Fold these 3 entries.
Entry 1:
Amino acid sequence: MKKENRGNISEKLVQTIANVLCDSVNNNDIAFEGSNDLISAAVGAIQSISFTKAGKETIISHKGVEKVCPLITEDDINIKSRAIGAIHNLSSGLRVVRILREEGVIACLVSLLSENTPQVLTPSIAGCIQNISREEASRKIIQQIGGVTSLTNLLFTCRDLKCQVCTIGALLNILGPDVHGEVDRKALKKILSLSLFCTQAQSLSKEFEQSLQQIE
């Protein structure tokens, strides 16, 4: 298949998906059976397409980012997971970060860290916040709504290494600019790295104790 044809198909696909998501957002109570499956499939397609630069541009141009944003608060775990995953991919660009900020996504993401969110979602949520925190305006919002506290709590409670690394990256982005001097910045980075080490050591210690109990 020629590259031009693939691009046309991708654009038509995103347009169709955007229309599906737009209908789902505008009609909170969709009447037809299996609607959650359709929305989940649509968001999953957006998530897959958003891995590539061309896919990102197509999604942005068809207002796909704005369509996905409300879905991170869905009760359906598959829809929520795929929406967060798509935003994680898309937020690698500052253009999308600005859209997310304007759509009020930052407060939703931070609140998800404080709620009883399934642990399987926390790495992507932390990754989203890490990406978003590269923008100064977004950093200020994260600080104002208690995001630093939520991220710090996550660092010491989450047992997923990827989640912890993203959390440290987010904290460095948020706190780093306020730390003056190269020595102080290195000290902050070292403190966060030691925190990660302590968390991992604590986790290994618990696993070791459980293993001993099984032997006994």
Entry 2:
Amino acid sequence: MPAESPSTLRVTYKATDAVISYRSSTDPDMIGWQTVYTDRPPSNGIRDAARMASTIGSSFSFEFYGHSFYLGGVSCGTEFVLTVDGQTMLPGKSDNDVIGHLKGLNLTHHSVNLTILSTGFDFVLERVTFDTGVTRGAEHAYLSTDPSWSFSPCLWELYPQPELAVVDLPAVQLTRAMGGSASFDFTGDTIYLYGSTGPRHGSFAVTLDGRTQILSGWSINVMPHRLLFFQSGLDSLINHRLNIVNLENATLDLAAAVVGSCLIPPVAQSDTSSDRHLPTSASLISLGTRDKSTECAATSDQMATTSLNTASQPRILFLNINNL
């Protein structure tokens, strides 16, 4: 029996993940981008949420390694300009890509920015899904309490979480000090960094192999289990170092790093296993066909209830951290 060809990794950024940066034309703290919750049932105790904007000039940006990406959400006739690596692009449209998609990009690192030019109804971003072109491999989670992590002395504390629905993450590493730093060494081609975001969080810098990204953990609501940073397309044969630095006297908490390697075949995991909180293979989100005429009119009050099949990606289960 011939061996199955290895599948490639597809990854989803949720709109409330810190890997997506938002700017508002009316508010430098991006409050112009509201957090709206869907009516879909909570997943692992966490409600699904999106970002919504209705002001001209509002924008969002993200980086990824891959050759194509999909923007999931509701544009509702909003005009926008999309740039990839500084060049204006015209995104493709289809029944399954409500906002649009781009394919056929060079397999490398890309920077994407979308800016709203005019508005009809509210513009809602739910998620970004992209093809990395990297062969999917085994993934392993390293909690921030793992000895493979290093933290600057005296600036971090172990923050207990006694009210977990599942006892998967007893504590996270947390700092409120500017300059508080952490580092994590690993070997693999893919890295995910998890933590939370909230109104007391601020900006932080993530450096991987000498390349730095400035990101923000600020959000108007506390959002647990957020993807703070992601990178793929790394050399699986060499050691990599991830450095995180808090840039403000604000909260920064780290829950776990998840490392993937195409050199190790992926292992199927059962939802009933004791390690069900560890990574699962990522897959492409499926966006159902929507009735835009009714959906667009409803977005200013609440998100539409159309069902989405969300891509499963590495996940660490924990509840709201209300006092960060």
Entry 3:
Amino acid sequence: KKKKNMPNFTSILQTDTLLTPVDWEAVQHFFYLALAALDILYVFHSFVQSRTSDIRYPSSKWTSTAVRRAFIIPHVLFGCVSIYSGTLFVIYLQWFPDAITDVFTQRISYTLALSMIFHAFTCIGMNTIPHGNRQFTVPAYISQTIINTIQATLLLMVPSNGNQLLSAWASMNVFILVRLLIAAQYFG
């Protein structure tokens, strides 16, 4: 039995009291452009951090053993390819939309997906030594590595899908957002 005075979902959506409808495509567009800008700023953040920090950069805990040294260089390289191939796609999507073809999207997709998978393999060696409180960061990094691997696999299945490419790229950006938030805490 339906309770009296309880509006259903459809009647709520049909009232004029709701806020103006949100253009989700514009919000998504802004989000991707903001992530691309943060990716570009991340290069400067890393450079400034390496020059101004009293601590050795990269941290000595990542280069303390031969195995960790073997993981750090590919980890950084595959991470950069993953991040900046998606950034390139977003820049082309914004300023050169006519250049976006299925072949272009597939090439970027394969580059992004394969670099994400190789990055995930290097994360296996890196996830045990993150910065911060290990009981929070280790599970967060491991779960994000799993999510990124799933996103990369889905992208390999449908490489011409631009939305899947953007989704996988946004998933990789979580690492940059976390690093930038940690850096912002120093100024807060």
